[in-house]
C-alpha cells in the first residue's frame, strides 16, 4: 500500500523545507512547490491525496484555487495556511471549501494532526457563499492563538444557522462576534437585531421580544412588532441572557421548542424565522444551580458555546489593538499618536479589567488630551493610575495596587453579606472553591492550548485529578497545542 502524498505550495523555501521534513517523518510522501500554477498542474494530473497551500503566492492567490480544486476533485481536501491571520482569511478559506485554516506561525504537531484528520474524514459537498466584501469586515483584531481559535469557530459557523452562546467578560467584544457571525453567514442579507436583557424592565421584556396587540395592556394604543418579527430572515442577538427574568425564559424556551410565538394579547401563531445568538458575562451553570436560570433553556441555547478571552489572556494583541484605536481616532486630532516601547510595555503589563473596551477608551482619551505625537510611559502611567484610582474608590479602596488575597477578601465580604446573584448561602465552601478553581484551570488550559499534561504539571495536580475537575466543573477544552 502506497503512502499518502501531500502537495505543499508556499513561496517561502524555509516553510516548504520544514513541512517536507515533518510530513516525511510522519509517514507521508511530499511534493513541494513555490508556484500556484505547479500545484494546479499536479491536481489536474490526479496527483496527491491532500493539499496544503499558502494564500499569497507570486502567480495566484491560494484561496482562488480552492473552488477550482473542489470542482474537478471534490474528494481532495485542501488545508490553507496564512501569515495574514485575520478573520477575513479564515472566513474566505472556509466558505470556499477549505478543510482547515492554519495561521502562521503554526505548530508542526498541529499540522500533523490536521493532516491525519483530513485524510480520515469523508468528503462533504460544499455550497459556497457569495464572498464577503472587504468593507464588511468586523473590527475583530488579534493574531494570538486564542483569537485564531475564535476566527476558526466563526468561519465554521458561517455555513450553518446553529444557535451560539457567547460567554465573556464585559468589554471583550461579544456583540462584535455576534455581528461577524451574522455578516459572514447565510442570513447576511437579513436584519441583525440586538436586545440587551439587562437594559429592559422586567415587565416589558415579553412585549419587546414578541410584540403586542392594540389594547393588550394599558398604553398599548397600536400593534407593535417585537424583536422576533423585526429580525425575520436574519439574526436575533440576545445580549446578557443571564439577566432574563424567569417568566420570559419560559416563553423563550417555548419559542425555541415550537418554532413559533404569539404577540402579547395575540392569538395567531407567528413563525420564528431567526437565528439566535445569545451572550452573557455570567456563569449560567452557577445560575442554574442557584435556580435563577432554566437548565432546559440553557441546553437549547448552548448548542455551540464560544468563550471570548479577556484581554489579559492575549497581551500579545495589545500593540495591534492600541495602534488600531489610535489610527481610528487620528482624524480630527491632526496626527496619529505613536506609543514608544516603554509605553507599550506598560500597556501589556496592565490587567485591563474593562478589557478591549477599556483599552479603546484609553486610546481615545490619549488622542484627545495629549497633543504630542510620541506617547511615553509617563503619560500611560498617569492615565492608568487615574483609572485604577477611580476603580478602587468605586470598590471602597484607597487606590493602592490590590493583592490577590485582598481581592479575594473583598469579593468574599460582598458574597457573604448579600449572596452572589441571589445564590442561597449554603454549602458555600464548595461553591467558593469551585469559583476559584474554574477560572484557574480554564486559564491554565488556555495557556497550554488545551494540553492537559502540561496544565497538570503547571497546577501541580495529577493528570487524572485534573481530568476529573474538568469534567465536574464542565470546563470546555480546546485542543490545539503540543
From TrEMBL:
Residue ranges the record marks as coiled coil: none
GO cellular component entries: cytoplasm
Gene3D superfamilies registered for this protein in UniProt: 1.10.8.60, 3.40.50.2300, Homeodomain-like, P-loop containing nucleotide triphosphate hydrolases
Location in or out of the cell: Cytoplasm
SUPFAM superfamilies: CheY-like (SSF52172), Homeodomain-like (SSF46689), P-loop containing nucleoside triphosphate hydrolases (SSF52540)
Domain Sigma-54 factor interaction, chain residue ranges per copy: 140-368
Alphabetized GO MF terms: ATP binding; phosphorelay response regulator activity; sequence-specific DNA binding
Residues in Response regulatory domain copies: 5-119
UniProt keywords, alphabetically: Activator, ATP-binding, Cytoplasm, DNA-binding, Nitrogen fixation, Nucleotide-binding, Phosphoprotein, Repressor, Transcription, Transcription regulation, Two-component regulatory system
GO annotation, biological process: regulation of DNA-templated transcription; regulation of nitrogen utilization
UniProt-listed NCBIfam families: ntrC
Stated name of the protein: DNA-binding transcriptional regulator NtrC
Organism name: Komagataeibacter oboediens
